[in-house]
Design goal:
The complex is a heterodimer.
Chain A (H helix, E strand, L loop, with lengths): L1 H6 L2 H21 L10 H14 L17 H5 L7 E3 L4 E3 L1 H20 L3 H4 L6 H18 L3 H17 L8 H32 L4 H8 L12 H17 L7 H9 L2 H26 L4 H20 L6 H22 L2 H28 L13 H4 L1 H14 L6 H15 L3 H27 L13 H16 L5 H12 L4
Antiparallel strand pairs in A: 1-2
Chain B lengths: L1 H22 L8 H43 L10
Helix pairs in contact in B: 1-2
The chains are: A mainly alpha, B mainly alpha.
């Protein structure tokens, strides 16, 4: 038991140690007069990447120590199928947490790869941003494996504290500072609401463990107040509001647009990728596993419909790339919520497939945005010269936009098809109908990218500098995934099925 | 199975290397050893995926059987849940 408790969360412990060592390395060396105060961002990025990749190694009983050194992908090939409850049921490790964590680590690694060249281009010596990225990766790992309301809240708070700092990375840029402050003030409210919800649940039921809560909500255990008292309902509502704020669904999306736009592009990239995985994983555990109750379903139906509609309509009027991508993100969260609000095994499976595909498409788009960033690429109209100067990049962006728009046979189509299929299967016909209509509407602004790139004459000719090797490789991998996913989707279906099944009681 | 996985993986690796050079506006065959490396990695990845799929299928079948037997045990005779 003791061995398990400290060996199973080895990645988290390793990441904390790596972060502390990196921090000491930076502080000591960057203030060194002997080395002429060296800029350490690139070194720290590589070291951070190394720590994230090495983190993939988990130690389990009867396993050889060489597993420490294999990379994440090879490790995934021998996924452990063990269930371990750690630290007196505060954390859990099973298939669901394991694959979510691997996926999260891959995304963090992608983000760090994308930022290798970013700081140099922006003349920004902010090595602390890598440390912050590692810190909130650790928080998100804990969040995914949280199995208790208190552990969950602490992990969310750890994550939020890092998130409050990082949008204000460019201290002399007023939009960046505004973004940081805005997120800090609104985020503090949402955390308070979430904590209030947790305390209400504890006050009315007397337990905080997810498994105990699940037993109560399926009627296996009866409490003094019963599982249907209004206090419990209010508690669930507050927790839901806290989560909905963090994942930027309508009507709690207001902060997202300004924060996405004001933050440095690197931060926007990380904001639109990593928290989606950890928060959705946590929401699935809380709402589908623990609060197995239809009362919250209507709330998520509403949020899904509202997000899909707002994401499709509001993005049409946008001219700035980051604002448009922020609305696109809101719309996609709406689509993902279709699977979530269905609450079935197939629903969870479709949600997970949707998240995987959405995240890979977003990495692809932001890799392009970051590659073009060096030319002050801000508006969609700035893409006018791209087809003439870099046709391969134009084709890549076009394919990703078609995939976002859900055009077959690309990966985006497969994920949306499966989500709507699940909605029809559980009788949520309205969700499927609105989803299809909003996809048609959103085609307008996704295909506008293609139109501007191929058919518009640019007002000013911009010569795009070539991107670095790391970004080009990342772009290639994500592009091939998006394009050829439909030929070989079975491993993803199998993984997600296993993950969904591991949530069964 | 192994041949297909190797061939498809190697082709993917080669395409990724071509794409990487093309998007950076470099000659497509620049540094040929990188192409060979990419093909090797692609072939290894293809085989790992094929093996992993079989492994996942086996595990999933096992898990589905467990779930089925647990469900049968839970609802024998009465609709009330029975403690294990």
């Amino acid at each position: 038991m003791f061995e398990h408790d400290f060996l199973a969360p080895f990645p988290e412990i390793f990441l904390i140690n790596a972060t502390i060592i990196l921090l000491i390395y930076e502080v000591v060396l960057s203030t060194s007069k002997k080395y002429d105060y060296p800029p350490l961002v690139r070194n720290v990025s590589w070291l951070g990447l190394l720590s994230v990749v090495r983190l993939g190694g988990r130690v389990w009983e009867n396993e050889e120590p060489y597993r420490y050194l294999i990379t994440i992908l090879l490790l995934a090939a021998n996924a452990p199928l063990t269930v371990a409850n750690l630290f007196y049921n505060n954390l859990i490790i099973n298939n669901f947490t394991y694959f979510c964590q691997i996926f999260l680590l891959l995304n963090t690694a992608s983000t760090i790869v994308m930022c290798l060249d970013y700081f140099k281009e922006e003349s920004l010596n902010a090595f602390e941003s890598i440390v912050l990225i590692l810190l909130f990766t650790r928080s998100m790992l804990l969040m995914i494996s949280a199995y208790d309301l208190i552990a969950m809240y602490l992990a969310i708070e750890l994550q939020s504290l890092c998130f409050y700092v990082i949008p204000a990375l460019k201290r002399d840029f007023e939009f960046s500072t505004e973004a940081g402050l805005k997120y800090f003030i609104l985020g503090a409210f949402s955390s308070g609401i979430l904590l209030f919800g947790c305390s209400m649940i504890y006050g009315f039921i007397g337990v905080t463990n997810f498994e105990e809560l699940a037993k109560i909500f399926i009627g296996y255990k009866i409490t003094l107040f019963g599982a249907q008292s209004s206090g419990i309902f209010m508690g669930i509502l507050f927790i839901a509001v806290g989560f909905l704020f963090k994942i930027t669904t309508v009507p709690f999306h207001m902060w997202a647009l300004d924060v996405y736009e004001g933050s440095p592009t690197l931060v926007t990239t990380f904001f639109s990728i990593a928290p989606k995985i950890s928060i959705l994983a946590n929401m699935v555990r809380v709402f589908i596993y623990s609060f197995y109750d239809p009362t919250w379903q209507q709330l998520f139906f509403f949020c899904s419909i509202a997000s899909m509609i707002l994401g499709a309509l509001a993005a049409m009027a946008q001219n700035k790339v980051k604002r448009l991508l922020a609305y696109s993100s809101i719309g996609h969260v709406g689509y993902l919520f279709i699977g979530f609000s269905c609450g079935t095994i197939e629903g969870i499976q479709s949600l997970l497939i949707g998240v995987f595909i959405y995240v890979l498409m977003t990495i692809n788009v932001f890799a392009i945005v970051l590659a073009l960033r060096q030319n002050c690429f801000k508006y969609i109209a700035d893409l006018g010269a791209l087809a003439k100067t870099n046709p391969i990049l134009t084709i890549t962006l076009s394919i990703t936009m078609f995939s976002y728009a859900g055009i077959p046979p690309l990966a985006g189509f497969c994920s949306k098809f499966y989500l709507f299929f699940v909605a029809l299967g559980c009788g949520a016909y309205l969700l499927a109908l609105i989803g299809v209509v909003t996809i048609f509407i959103s085609c307008f602004y996704y295909i506008r990218f293609v139109k501007i790139m191929y058919f518009d004459t640019p007002k000013t000719w911009i010569l795009y500098k070539p991107m670095d090797r790391e970004k080009s490789l990342l772009l290639a991998i994500t592009l091939f995934f998006i394009t050829f996913f439909f030929l070989y989707p079975s491993p993803f279906f199998l993984i997600t099925h296993q993950m969904a099944l591991s949530l069964c009681l | 199975m192994v041949g297909t996985a190797t061939f498809v993986g190697a082709a993917l690796g080669l395409s990724i290397q071509f794409f990487s050079n093309g998007v950076r506006k470099l000659p497509l065959m620049r540094h040929p050893w990188e192409h060979v490396l990419a093909m090797g990695l692609g072939a290894a990845f293809g085989n790992a995926m094929a093996k992993w799929e079989v492994h996942l299928q086996d595990e999933l079948d096992k898990r589905l059987q467990e779930v089925q037997s647990a469900n049968k045990k839970r609802f024998i005779g009465t609709m009330r849940a029975v403690e294990d």
